[in-house]
Amino acid sequence: MTTTQLFDQLWNEYTERTPSAQKVKNLFEAQGNSTIANDHVAFRTFDDPRVNIDVLATTFINNGYEYVADYHFEKKKLYAKHFAHKTDKNAPLVFISQLLTSELSVELQSIVKNTLDTVDFTTVSAEELVFKGRLWDTPNFELYNTLLNESEYAAWLYVNGFCANHFTVDINKLDTFNTIIEVNNFLKENGHELNASGGEIKGTPEDFLEQSSILADKFIVNFEEGAKEITSCYYEFAFRHPMANGELFKGFIASSADKIFESTDMVLQ
Ligand code: NI
């Protein structure tokens, strides 16, 4: 599989559960942007050794990616790593976070472990994991709410499973927009609601990275107790500034990512 095929497959799966992303991409194209490049694609997982960051990263490592840096989110009990393609500078960055279950309640730990224990991991290769979505059976709404009370991230992952949590438009490569404010105004004019947690724009030119996102879509999830509407994934927008050496900053800002995680928050919807 080429890198392009890999991200095309992820995009197809992602836009099925996130129709807003395809709509926004179409709007950018209709505005005269010939290519909509991705700055990064992000994934979520648990720290369990069967599915942790390094397992989820397998398909990217096998496609020419390497580890670059890591990030700590102490309040949300998350840890993340970012990966970049070794030679293809146009390939999106990959950002994978994991929930540090050992820092959360024994109850949450047992729900996560019991859920993963129902999966036969001998039939799922590490390479495929990122495409698999939810590998376990029908979720239970009571368990979902127990997770939600403690970690929105855990609850989201319990329902959505392994998939691209967000794709991110590279604003620097858009032809018709020069700032993130222009992009945000365009999104709002077209009826898309932005994640305003910590302000609509996360980060400043001094951080060399400004980011915004629209709120996650919702989809109908069939729980054991019946169908409920739950958040799926969201579309993000990133504008990078040059550093003193003239090169665009290519890392991430933990305090900004911290707020962006909240784009799937059920309360914000
Ligand atoms: Ni992101």
In a nutshell, what does this entry contain?
This protein has 269 residues and is an alpha+beta fold.
Topology summary:
Elements: H1 3-17, H2 19-30, E1 38-46, H3 53-56, H4 58-61, E2 65-73, E3 78-85, E4 93-99, H5 106-117, H6 141-150, H7 152-160, E5 164-170, H8 180-189, E6 209-213, E7 218-223, E8 226-231, E9 234-240, H9 254-260
Parallel strand pairs: 1-4, 5-9
Antiparallel strand pairs: 1-5, 2-3, 3-4, 6-9, 7-8
Helix pairs in contact: 1-2, 6-7
The structure holds nickel (II) ion.
Explain this structure:
- The chain has 269 residues and is an alpha+beta fold.
- It is built from 9 helices and 9 strands.
- The strands form 2 sheets. The protein has a 7-stranded mixed beta sheet with strand order 2-3-4-1-5-9-6, sandwiched between helices. A two-stranded antiparallel sheet has the order 7-8.
- Bound molecules: nickel (II) ion.
- The site of nickel (II) ion has 7 residues, from β1 and β5.
Summarize this structure as a short list of keywords or feature phrases.
269 residues; seven-stranded mixed sheet; 2,3-Dihydroxybiphenyl 1,2-Dioxygenase, domain 1; globular; 9 helices; binds nickel (II) ion; alpha+beta
Q: Rounded to an integer, what's the Rg over CA atoms?
A: 18 Å
Heteromolecules bound? nickel (II) ion
CATH architecture: Roll
Per DSSP E runs of 2 or more residues, the count of β-strands stands at 9
Shape by Cα distribution: globular
